[in-house]
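Good morning,

Attaching, inline, the backbone tokens for the sequence recovery test we're adding to the shared suite. The designed sequence is right after.
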């Protein structure tokens, strides 16, 4: 897409951004992160004559600990996302207002998950801080996505984040963590709705290009947490515990959006649009097959182990 075409699209979509921004501001609740942290459990660490961290202090199951760590480090990388969004959407008008509002909301997520984990001694604070330094210094570079690709990616990514937070809360076996993560997931849901509806509008303005963007993002989807040290191992543990796996990715993230956009009902596509739609159908089928195979293999592996060992 040329710079000129991108500028034209930004203009054409501006009314939708404005409308969605207004709806977002009307429905977003000004919640207070400090209310979600059990401060009375907090105590000093070693340097202030307290007790150093040790693993048995954590009440979280190992998979929940890993998931919370990955969720937090992903949220911690906000400066990179802000830079990418600012570069793609610009500072002007409703686009610029959205970027800053979204950044302010996302900033809450890292701060209260960190407060929760430190106060409850959920993770090793030293390892966490080293990982944060490494993650933020690595930054997140999605490779300058064109505008429509960025919108499609963000719709999937916000939904993936909502699902990951929600499922982490569920398996945490801690009502305090569950409540905190459910609250954050509500924010992620509103973010998803914003991009979902933007993509919906783009499908009407530029159907073929938008379909190509959706197809490319389904095919090449990478979680923003991929820059976290040891991500592959952590993602495998998270998938193994059923917090976020290929089946969930297909069923709860990709398909609900594909259905919402009514992609397979769009009429009057040109040849490029039809091609993109066929490619998408093939990509969805391939993802579904991989998901089935993954779940089967996991069940086999878990059946071969004593219960309570997985995760
Ligand atoms: Fe977030
Ligand atoms: Fe979000």
């Amino acid at each position: 897409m040329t710079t000129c075409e991108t500028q034209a699209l930004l203009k054409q979509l501006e009314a939708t951004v404005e409308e969605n921004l207004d709806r977002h501001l009307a429905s977003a609740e000004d919640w207070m992160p400090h209310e979600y942290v059990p401060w009375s459990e907090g105590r000093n660490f070693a340097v202030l004559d307290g007790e150093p961290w040790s693993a048995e202090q954590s009440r979280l199951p190992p998979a929940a600990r890993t998931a919370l760590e990955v969720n937090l480090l992903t949220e911690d990388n906000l400066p990179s996302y802000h830079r990418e969004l600012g570069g793609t959407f610009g500072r002007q008008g409703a686009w610029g207002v959205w970027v800053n509002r979204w950044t302010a909301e996302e900033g809450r997520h890292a701060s209260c998950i960190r407060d929760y984990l430190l106060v409850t001694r959920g993770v090793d604070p030293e390892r966490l801080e080293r990982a944060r330094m490494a993650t933020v210094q690595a930054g997140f570079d999605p490779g300058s996505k064109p505008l429509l690709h960025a919108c499609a990616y963000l719709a999937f990514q916000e939904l993936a984040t909502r699902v990951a937070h929600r499922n982490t809360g569920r398996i945490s076996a801690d009502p305090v963590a569950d409540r905190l993560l459910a609250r954050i997931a509500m924010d992620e849901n509103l973010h998803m709705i914003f991009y979902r509806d933007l993509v919906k509008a783009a499908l009407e303005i530029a159907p073929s290009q938008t379909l190509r963007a959706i197809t490319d993002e389904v095919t090449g989807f990478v979680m923003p947490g991929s820059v976290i040290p040891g991500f592959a191992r952590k993602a495998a543990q998270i998938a193994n515990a059923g917090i976020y796996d290929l089946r969930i990715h297909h069923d709860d993230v990709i398909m609900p959006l594909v259905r919402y956009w009514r992609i397979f009902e769009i009429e009057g596509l040109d040849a490029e649009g039809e091609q993109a739609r066929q490619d998408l159908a093939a990509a969805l089928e391939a993802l579904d097959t991989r998901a089935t195979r993954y779940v089967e293999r996991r069940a086999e592996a878990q059946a071969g182990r004593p219960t309570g060992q997985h995760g």
